[in-house]
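so my prof wants the structure for this chain in the tokens format not the other one, which i didnt know existed until like an hour ago. anyway here's the sequence
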Amino acid sequence: MVVISTAEVCIGSSEAQHDLSGLEGHRLRTHGGVSEAKVPFILSAPLNDGYRLKAGAATLKSYPVFDFALNGTGES
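here's what i got, hopefully its the right format
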């Protein structure tokens, strides 16, 4: 089962439903949902042809940003 919320909703139940003693004074926070995953992917130079094709073929995530920044600009 997969459950995805909207940006205005946090999925979970109340504090009373969970043992939060392991937090030891730290706050509980969510990691965000798929609906919150849109972040800018901005480079200071245009992508080369090969990386422009990669970018158009899939939804970009944050983890390949260094590959795109280091290898995706300049000549293909």
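also thought this was worth mentioning. Residues 15-71 form one domain.
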